[in-house]
Write a structure and sequence with these properties.
The chain is an alpha/beta fold and 261 residues long. The protein is built from eight helices and seven strands; from the N terminus they run αβαβαββαααββααβ. The protein is elongated.
Length: 261
């Protein structure tokens, strides 16, 4: 009896730990400052902290890349962000090309909703003057501030949406606007009325209740002929259509913009 009691207690103890909710580990989001052009100097460490704080806030990868490459800043931004976060995943990158004197911002995933074309232009209004004044650190800090500001402001849309607090995933809710419903109903009525009018005019049925009788015996005519088709041969043609090449392996479906400085 004592053994059964101990066994029963062990079973209850095990079930208690089995069904107790386990604490969920907070998701971490990547960030990075890659100063290949060596223009950020000792501020790189502090900028890295700002990038990580922004990544945790936006639930997206946040990156800054400086380079002296001959590759265009836009192509480099697309390919670089795709390599860091994955094709079309949540992320944003600021690319500063000192060789071509170009700056480019590229956002994918959920971040493309927050950073619309107009908002990217407003961000460049802050980044470009700082780069022209050789204030690279100020340009990066201004970039972080604008992205944080627009994320807090929300997505610039009249559509309703929800944001997952853990992953940052955006879900847009479908809705029917009264104006669109009225326009669709009017279009349907006009289309139906036009169809009826065309049929009525074509057959000139002045009396809507008149019945038009067609004399099939007098007007009908049927001619039959015999024809034999023979299959002589068949041919199968194959063709290889190559996939279109991308400009530097960049991702699609994002929001971006750039300028010279």
């Amino acid at each position: 009896m004592k053994k059964k009691s101990i066994l029963f207690s062990l079973i209850l103890f095990g079930l208690f730990f089995l069904f107790i909710p386990q604490p969920t580990k907070a998701a971490t989001f990547s960030s990075g400052i890659e100063d290949n052009a060596q223009i950020l100097g000792p501020t790189t460490s502090s900028l890295q902290g700002q990038a990580q704080a922004l990544a945790d806030q936006t639930k997206a990868g946040v990156y800054v890349l400086t380079t002296n490459s001959t590759t265009s800043a836009s192509s480099m931004a697309r390919s670089y962000l795709a390599e860091q976060v994955g094709e079309g995943k949540n992320g944003v990158v600021l690319v500063i090309n000192m060789n071509l004197r170009k700056v480019y911002i590229w956002a994918t995933g959920n971040m493309k909703h927050y950073l619309s074309a107009s908002r990217i232009e407003d961000t460049l209004d802050v980044v470009q003057p700082a780069l022209s004044a050789n204030d690279s650190s100020g340009a990066v800090t201004g970039f972080f501030d604008k992205v944080s500001q627009y994320y807090r402001a929300g997505i610039p849309t009249s559509r309703r949406y929800t944001v997952d607090e853990q992953t940052g995933a955006v879900t847009f809710q479908r809705s029917f606007r009264p104006l669109y419903i009225i326009i669709a109903a009017l279009f349907a009525l006009l289309s139906a009325a036009l169809f009826i009018w065309m049929i009525y005019r074509r057959y000139q049925m002045k009396d809507a209740h008149a019945i038009w009788r067609y004399d099939y015996n007098h007007n009908g005519e049927l001619q039959l002929s015999e024809r034999e088709d023979r299959l002589v041969n068949t041919f199968i043609t194959t063709r290889h259509i190559p996939r279109p090449s991308s400009d530097g392996g960049g991702s699609s479906g994002g929001s971006g913009g750039g300028r010279s400085f």
